[in-house]
Amino acid sequence: MQEEKYLYIRKPIPRRDIDKLTGEAQFIADIEIPGALWMKLVGSPYPHARILEIDTSEAEKVPGVEAVLTGKDFPFKIGHHIRDRDVLARDRALYVGHPVAAVIAETLEAAEKAAELVRVKYEPLPYVLDPLEAMKPDAPLLHPNLGEYEHLPFLYPVPGTNIAHKFKLRKGSIKDGEREADVVVEEEYRLPMLHHSYLEPWGAAARVRSDGTIEIWTSSQGPFAVRTQLAHSLHIPESRIVVHYLYVGGGFGAKSDLFLEYLPVLASMKLNGRPVKLILNREESFYYGFHRAEYIFRMKTGARKSDGKIVFHKGEYIYGTGHAADLGSLLGNTIGWLATGPYDIPNVWIDSYTVYTNKPTTTAFRNYTHTELWFAFEQQMDILAERLGMDPVEFRLRNLIKPGASTLPTGQQISEDWGDPEGVLKRAAELIEWGKEPEQPREPWKRRAKAIVMAPKGPSMPPNITTSAIVKMNEDGSVDLLTGVAEIGQGTLNSLAMMVAEELQIPLEKVRVYGIDRDTSNTPYDWETCASRATFAIGQAVLKAVDDLKQQIKQLASQILRVDPSSIEIRDGKAVVKGEPWKALKLEEVAMGYTFPDGHAIHGQLIGRGSWVPRRTTGLDEEGRGHPLEFVTYSAQAVEIEVDILSGRIDILKAVAVADTPFINKILALGQAYGGALMGINVALREEIKFDENGKILNPGFTDYKIARAGDIPKSIIVEFLSTKLLHDAPYGAKGIGEVFLGGWPAAIANALYRAIGVRIKRAPLSPERVVEEIKKQKPDLLENIVKKLGGE
Questions:
Q1: DSSP characters for 231-300?
Q2: Which domains, ranges and CATH numbers included, belong to the chain?
Q3: What is d(CA 96, CA 87) in angstroms, rounded to the nearest whole number?
Q4: Is residue 1 scored above 50 in pLDDT?
Q5: Collapsing DSSP states into helix, strand and coil, what is residue 509?
Q6: Whether pTM exceeds 0.90
Q7: What is the pLDDT of residues 527-563, one digit of tens each?
């Protein structure tokens, strides 16, 4: 990346929020609220059952129990996008773990003991766990009254079915494309439901103040989003809800939606305002929490032999959203704008379905829908390239979109300042040494191979979200920055401080950014920290606020120094007259206005304000047309793997990630890149929520749900940031990078495995057990020959 003459921007500046290391940081479990009660939930043991009777009498006898609440206490449905959730299951429980009762007691121990004494009579009902089965006409219906549910206007539920939302996207003529194609690839790919694996289990506390204001403490990626969705679900004015900012021990999308905050809120309302606290343990996080949806992609893609151009893509995309949809209902829309990847395909036909199943509900997962789509689409690309007799990289280069000329499947023009997809792919190919075959290991049961994929990110943001910032100067020349951004561990507050210090040319330590000492009543609005938007969106609001402050400084200094405001520049912590550096005022001299020798005062405290809203973006219409994106971050990922044919284990020898975006802080950017890479590789090789035939989770904890450890880090990870184009209104050209580095690893590993041993795996994860199973199915001779050879030796 080109070195630029900045004081702080692009520099590897360490984070300043060290209170996590000192133990001063407070998470939801650390919050002590005087008089708080504890809540414990009682879940259904059945995947689908009619609730005949709930007997709470024995539970209520436990000393310290204040109340036992059931669905009858809350005879309404909630949900922001679609009202399809019960507060507590009422007539029917819809999955194993579905909360049917909530015990509130003076201590956690009393609540736990009482929860065990709640007796529920059920009538088991037919259930459906697989999304394809759930779409059949005779499938058990989870929501017979789906047609009566209130929902946002861009959702299209199909009453009388388990389809929470049907989305379609049309571009060109699919019939013309099919007639033109010489080679057609038709495949099905599947990815399982995943847990977000945040280290801090979710929790919340709430109370109702004497004036009726609801006060909430929660482990959330978006306090304002919690306020908005809670107000919408419970028909309470936003101004009557105050949400506190806390440290968040990881979210990855799971804490971006309204989680279970409504439970302590409603319980407090029932108990005359007493504080109520609900903290989930790890197993409860699996059952009561949100997960990533399971995906099924049915793809049919065709290309011409004459020039290797893709001429059509047809897809049926199916998402198992669990027992409730809400944010999961948007999967189809989100996948729409990059439905064909970074490739210029003239004819596109996509039908996508968000489908209810008798499983826990789902929500956004880091790199929302993109990682899953690339797992399928980038395998399609390799298969097409092979059948055309083309090199996979050359095939991709031939079909890449052309910034400034091509359009997305939605019809949106691809802006030139979004970046250079061709440059990204070529650079990744150089770094992985594409064209140079890997040296094969001595062991005859091991093989090595390389693969490379494209994995761009087009962030999912509503077209009407806004964010604001305030910067104010203090008497000593220091600056306070106040925003609504939720810091969830990514270091955004550090980056924002760097921007303020850079613009005002002051020491970084003179910028104070308000972190957890905020709530939604005393901070400017921000939607939430998700969709790779925090630095991009809030950074713009901050720069506008600083610019407002700078204009005030210049105006005030010009009055004092008796020059035109345009002749004032701000540098080295001073307002200086251009060309006359001896005429200058320190910022602390004007921070609170200025008082002339005769006592006449002007201006007052300097306070800058800035707001940002997406520009020129729209929603999508019924055929998927619209302008949904602010930008795309182009990325390519490549791997060199070694597979053990006998055990099925895949080791990543070398991982390469290239993204076309500059950054604000090099340390933070690399942290996102390495973390995203490790998470993506783990998703590819290990992660999967396993259910038995009755819908019970078999691995509800990190003992059996395998996440990456230090020993799983690839032997070599190369990360490179390009800066071919600077997005003209992004802060210092920086786009979102929090998700893009997760994107292509599952596809790259699957393609490399095929190139190594000729086994194509279209179902994630590529666990050792699955690899061996597929070798036996697809290449039994390969395994047998190695076994014979070893026996012969």
A1: HHHHT--GGGEEEE----S--TTTTSS--STHHHHHHHHHTTT--EEEE--HHHHHHHS-BBPEEEEEEE
A2: 31-125+202-279 (3.90.1170.50), 294-411+436-444+631-787 (3.30.365.10), 465-612 (3.30.365.10)
A3: 16
A4: no
A5: helix
A6: yes
A7: 888 888 889 999 999 999 999 999 999 999 999 999 9
